[in-house]
Amino acid sequence: MESRYSWNWIIIGLISFLLFLPVAEAYSQGSRERPSKPEEPTTENIDPNSVPYTSEQSVGEYLLALPSFLLHWTSRPLGWGVKWAERELPQLLQGERAPYGVFPLIELGGDVGTAYGLLLYHKKITKYNHRARIEALFGSEEYNDFNFEYTIPKFFSEKSQLAFDASYSNDPVKSLYGGNSSELVNEQLYATEELEGLIEFQHRISPVATLTLSGRYRNFDIGISEAVRESTLPLVREPLRGTTALLGLDSSLRFDFVDQSPRSIRGGRYILGLNWNHSLTDDQFHYLTYMLEWHQFLPFPFLPDTRRLGLKTQLHQTTTLGDRRIPFFDYPSLGSSYDLRGFSTDRFRDDGSLLITLEYRYPLWNFADIVLFVDEGQVFSDYTKIGLDDFHTSYGFGFHLISTKGFAFRSEFAFSKESSRVILNINPNF
Amino acid sequence: MVLLLGQMGCRTTKPYALGPIKTFDPDTTDIPQPPENESYQYWDRIDNTIFHQLEKPLDLNKVFRAAGRTVGVTNAKQADNINRLDEPPESSWYNNRHYYNPMTPEELAQGPNTVAPDTSANWTIFSAKLEGANPGFFIEDASGNRFLIKFDGPRYPELTTSAEVISTKIFYAAGYNVPQATITYFDPDQVTVGDDVMVIDKGKKRPMTKADYRNIIAGKTRNKEGKIRALASKFVDGIPVGSWGFEGTRTDDPNDRVAHEHRRELRGMRVISSWVNDTDRRDANTMSVYTDGGYIKHLVQDFGNTLGANAAGVHEPIYGQAYLIDPRYMTLNAVSLGFNVNSWETVELKKHIPFPSVGYFQEDIFKPGQWVSAHPLPAYENMTLRDAFWAAKQVMSFSDEDIRAIVETGQLTNPKAEEYIIAVLIKRRDQIGRYWFSRINPVDKFSVTDTGDQIMLAFKDLGVTGGLFDPEQTHYEYEISVVDGKTLQQEQKTEEPVISFDKSTIPQLTTGGRTDVLKYEIITRRTNPDVSEKSTLVYIALEQTGPRLVGIKREE
């Protein structure tokens, strides 16, 4: 049956085409030329210079153009809006972000559906150009995200800056799976509420080296929300629930040899990080996390430099201090918009994690790249457990918007044997 | 139904007219002054890049015509304002100039200019723009003439101002209405800020100060006497009533009857723009002026993005080769996984800027047939081979000396930079001529005379007169017939662009009150295999007063 219908459509198409040929011929300027309208006088009796040219369309031509007219007129309100914006908000269209302003925020998808919010910023507070930024995202009673940042550039020195950051978030449905060989059926659910305060000092030691020191306070409340209760999936075990306050001290040293072009063409970047944490509410958590990261960019041979390979290698490891423990949510994990992108969030979790990402980036246009990537990663309990056969694979493609200052936005589509993920992010992967 | 629709849009006519040839389109009738159309920078670019492109496949007229062209039964839609000689008559848009009545080098250098700003006395600023890519101001000189004063970018002295002057004069000579543009050097201390001049600073309006003036002129190009170099663009006569677009007509102008996308001079402007790499041609860079004569005159303005200049900076190699957002190349780039390398990507800009005052202006990657402005323009998109030929012959009408005379008015202080621009313009001119004249029969400037017993049709082979093709390797084949009658000569050949024809072989010439019309079908043959050999039909009416050219039809 389907085959016969297909042939019908082909025949109808051919007949239509043959019927339309005379129409096309009617417009021909060839053997039967269509004159400028109105037709130029052909006798000496009329001065042609007294008869103006006119573009005219016949009723038939109007009818044949009707679909395009419809699109034309439905798109006009957008034009009125752009013109209004140019008149009333010229800086918005000139790409010159005003020193302060408000932008809407929309987050789509995920377990909580849609969230709306606002971003408020001011880039020139005080004569020293302090910066402040407030982000507020409202999803539901149980899903919200607030963040406040205040940055003092040139803090005591041209090469230093101090930043304060405070954030609050709650999420009614988070998943906990397990180690490297965990299955999806191992999924357990919990709800979380997190409060964080951070003070961070950054100092540029040399043109390529930057030292960052920070102290943070975090308060976690791991519990069971109504949303989790309604699920058929198991809940995290009782000992993992409860409230925990943590004090953390972080330090990192970053050596950046990547070229300063907006696209990051060549060069390496090395990041060493050490993080100390201790629980404040009781004495049960005391641990260290260290991190090594290497980014390398390399132009693809025989092609312009804008075609390049990017490699990211990342090792995270936690270790307890004394006989204390590590809260489950602070174990290194894989599965996010930055690592093993095709897997669920925090899909694999253990004492350590190893990630290798390879990206091929090439220009779609002068302001956009296409990215093809593959992520290989595994978590492990100790280094001896790392095995070539234990890597999980995720792959995908994406689009990166590039501004004159560098990376601006990425939209990526990642896949794995288990799941997929759509990523819209203003932060680069690396 | 479809056939009916087709017939409703169909008319046939003779390709010649026995009446006078139309030389003027009367679009200068007195009309009431229309209100000023506000000019916008963004919407026309968005509209032409996105919505106009989406509308094209929805316009079944265009779809069917394209289908017909594919199978060879229809041609492209030609311009609506061309006469029987395939020329656009003069109008409020266009005047016959250099190609038709060759201008002397002095006239070309003079261009539209009638008056320069008086730098011997004080200037008064009466308006100013502090923000944007190129801040400037408006002055009134001691003679009461008003000018827009614009400057070069700090890194490229003399670049933008010279480009603006040179291209303005080229467009003028090609027949377009343009504002007067002059390089001027003024004493910065002989300028005062007028009373009540307001400026917009960080989004707020406030009175202009002397400090604002000093900021605008800070770092600008100066000569040895300390005078500042600027471009002075004279206020046009009449009342500005906004910009005009490259599509549609102005609804409040009853004289505006021809859809702009179907005007020959606007379609053909694409070729002239390609010559000078006029990439920023768009609605906002045009001007309509309500004249003292009571009609709207249409001007082309803002040539600061031509030659090697891109406002205060230099052109990027991509300019002229692709739209700034070009789905054609973007698709190719995407599916090729980066292995498609576009020609502009391999150009290292810094190595191709020979002089700061020249910027990036090359001929090596210039492809006349593929040249595009930075954003799509409906009129440019509609350009047919006949439109392109019309424009290419305007371009080819500039001799090397003509080009030199115009470029010298850019007053470049480095003679090598001046020579460089002249050389590139000459090369690009020839590339344009060679490209378009290879795709259509480039015979033109027909003249017919009666020598008594002979009718002599002479013409110019623009490919030969332009030095593009070797006359030794060129000949012309022709046939002559009486329209609606018998063939008089078949498979004839001439080495020279002259066709003589014995009158005695014409039977019953001009009898019974009917004027006989001869049809000459001319094909130019060259040994060059890249040249397509198309025909040109020339119609000669044998009137009592003598033979007269009454029609030209070019095969595409």
What's a quick, concise take on this entry?
Chain A is 14% helix and 48% strand. Chain A has 430 residues and is mainly β.
Query: Which regions of chain A have little confidence, pLDDT < 50, spanning 5+ residues?
Result: 24-39
Rg of chain B, Å, rounded: 26 Å
Biggest β-sheet: strands ordered side by side in the sheet of chain B: 4-8-3-2-1-5
Q: Counting H and I runs of at least 4 residues, what is the number of helices of chain A?
A: 5
Kindly describe this structure.
Chain A is built from five helices and 18 strands. Chain A is mainly beta and 430 residues long. Chain A starts with a helix and ends in a 5-residue tail after the last strand. Chain B is built from 13 helices and 21 strands. Chain B has helices at 2-8, 43-55, 60-71, 105-110, 159-173, 210-217, 264-276, 327-335, 378-381, 385-396, 400-408, 415-437, 462-465, and strands spanning 123-129, 136-140, 146-150, 181-186, 191-193, 198-201, 204-207, 228-234, 239-240, 286-290, 296-300, 309-310, 313-314, 443-450, 454-461, 474-482, 487-494, 498-502, 516-526, 535-543, 546-554. In chain B, the strands form six sheets. Chain B has a six-stranded mixed beta sheet with strand order 4-8-3-2-1-5, with helices on both faces. In chain B, strands 17-16-19-20-21 form a five-stranded antiparallel beta sheet, with no helix packed on it. In chain B, strands 9-10-11 form a three-stranded antiparallel beta sheet, with no helix packed on it. In chain B, a hairpin with a 3-residue loop joins strand 14 (443-450) and strand 15 (454-461). In chain B, helix 5 packs across helix 11, helix 7 packs across helix 10 and helix 10 (385-396) runs antiparallel to helix 12 (415-437). Chains A and B meet through helix 1, helix 2, helix 3, helix 4 and strand 14 of A and helix 1, helix 2, helix 3 and helix 8 of B.
